[in-house]
């Protein structure tokens, strides 16, 4: 049982850093630009397809990853210029409708370009295999590398947001974007930077998870709902909140799905316990969100409404 707990805790940490990479951009886009972007999940999918394509063309995962990053930046800038920018002055309902339409357009475009058959990305040889943890327990090296990469990005974002001029503008924009614009900051360039950064982070998440998941057109939608939960729990516009919220959501979700049926075995028949546990486990994340919002309506690190 201890080994299972440690294993699922690591799986939760891995899911958590992936959710953080997606949620960090989403929380900045909503917190600074006041744009509800339902298409953020497709950027995660695009990153996976880009790494699959570039890795196949170059024969190297690492070269594919290097090519994916500037391509993701271009994708983000193009989407911001053509789709998101005309929505700045529009209502949230218009933003939801437009970005939902973008989701359908991108999904169909991906099917046309890459087909409907799921793609696979081979594990880099350097990170293949497993390492021993405790006793007979082993854990894949690549999954540990995902955790390390996510933590490195989180540390880099912390330095940028808290110790650079760009970070100062991002924090000020999340607090009062009208005042930032009034002080002479080019708010359109700031918006473009924020959206491009969010796009690169989401594509990076899709790229690093591609070797352990199948790359298909539905992978973006599967994480989008959890990402919104992370943003709400952490507080809109807060990178620190996105990080802590992502870890909380991922660990609760992972442990709940694994240990929920096990714990219910003590009070229910095995078949009923398994079925009930699978039904109740997805609810734990939303119970967690409700409890946090009851105590702190603005989220863990969100700004309190005046």
From TrEMBL:
<feature type="transmembrane region" description="Helical">
    <location>
        <begin position="96"/>
        <end position="114"/>
    </location>
</feature>
<comment type="similarity">
    <text>Belongs to the binding-protein-dependent transport system permease family. LivHM subfamily.</text>
</comment>
<keyword id="KW-0472">Membrane</keyword>
<keyword id="KW-1003">Cell membrane</keyword>
<dbReference type="GO" id="GO:0006865">
    <property type="term" value="P:amino acid transport"/>
</dbReference>
<dbReference type="InterPro" id="IPR001851">
    <property type="entry name" value="ABC_transp_permease"/>
</dbReference>
<dbReference type="GO" id="GO:0005886">
    <property type="term" value="C:plasma membrane"/>
</dbReference>
<feature type="transmembrane region" description="Helical">
    <location>
        <begin position="63"/>
        <end position="84"/>
    </location>
</feature>
<feature type="transmembrane region" description="Helical">
    <location>
        <begin position="38"/>
        <end position="57"/>
    </location>
</feature>
<protein>
    <submittedName>
        <fullName>ABC transporter permease</fullName>
    </submittedName>
</protein>
<feature type="transmembrane region" description="Helical">
    <location>
        <begin position="12"/>
        <end position="31"/>
    </location>
</feature>
<dbReference type="Pfam" id="PF02653">
    <property type="entry name" value="BPD_transp_2"/>
</dbReference>
<feature type="transmembrane region" description="Helical">
    <location>
        <begin position="279"/>
        <end position="295"/>
    </location>
</feature>
<feature type="transmembrane region" description="Helical">
    <location>
        <begin position="246"/>
        <end position="267"/>
    </location>
</feature>
<keyword id="KW-0812">Transmembrane</keyword>
<feature type="transmembrane region" description="Helical">
    <location>
        <begin position="190"/>
        <end position="213"/>
    </location>
</feature>
<keyword id="KW-0029">Amino-acid transport</keyword>
<feature type="transmembrane region" description="Helical">
    <location>
        <begin position="141"/>
        <end position="161"/>
    </location>
</feature>
<keyword id="KW-1133">Transmembrane helix</keyword>
<keyword id="KW-0813">Transport</keyword>
<feature type="transmembrane region" description="Helical">
    <location>
        <begin position="219"/>
        <end position="239"/>
    </location>
</feature>
<dbReference type="GO" id="GO:0022857">
    <property type="term" value="F:transmembrane transporter activity"/>
</dbReference>
<dbReference type="InterPro" id="IPR052157">
    <property type="entry name" value="BCAA_transport_permease"/>
</dbReference>
């Amino acid at each position: 049982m201890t080994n299972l707990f440690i294993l699922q805790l690591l799986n939760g940490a891995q899911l958590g850093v992936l959710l953080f990479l997606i949620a960090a951009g989403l929380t900045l886009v909503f917190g600074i630009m006041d744009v509800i972007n339902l298409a953020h999940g497709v950027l995660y999918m695009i990153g996976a397809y880009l790494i699959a394509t570039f890795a196949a063309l170059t024969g190297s995962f690492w070269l594919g990853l290097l090519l994916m990053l500037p391509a993701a930046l271009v994708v983000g800038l193009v989407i911001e210029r053509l789709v998101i920018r005309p929505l700045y002055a529009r209502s949230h309902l218009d933003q939801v409708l437009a970005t939902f339409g973008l989701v359908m357009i991108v999904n169909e475009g991906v099917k046309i370009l890459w087909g409907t058959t799921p793609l696979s990305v081979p594990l880099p040889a350097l990170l293949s295999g497993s390492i021993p943890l405790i006793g007979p327990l082993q854990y894949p090296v690549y999954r540990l590398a995902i955790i390390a990469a996510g933590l490195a990005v989180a540390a880099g974002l912390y330095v940028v947001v808290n110790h650079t001029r760009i970070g100062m503008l991002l924090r000020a924009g999340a607090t009062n974007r009208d005042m930032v614009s009034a002080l002479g900051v080019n708010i359109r360039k700031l918006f473009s930077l924020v959206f491009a950064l969010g796009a690169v982070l989401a594509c990076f998440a899709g790229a690093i998870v591609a070797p352990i998941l199948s790359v298909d057109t539905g992978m973006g939608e599967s994480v989008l709902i959890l990402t919104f939960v992370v943003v709400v729990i952490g507080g809109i516009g807060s990178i620190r909140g996105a990080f802590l919220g992502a870890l909380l959501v991922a660990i609760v979700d992972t442990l709940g799905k694994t240990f929920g049926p096990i714990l219910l075995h003590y009070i229910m028949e095995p078949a009923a316990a398994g079925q009930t546990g699978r039904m109740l486990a997805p609810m734990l994340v939303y119970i967690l969100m409700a409890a946090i919002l009851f105590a702190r309506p603005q989220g863990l690190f969100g700004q309190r409404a005046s």
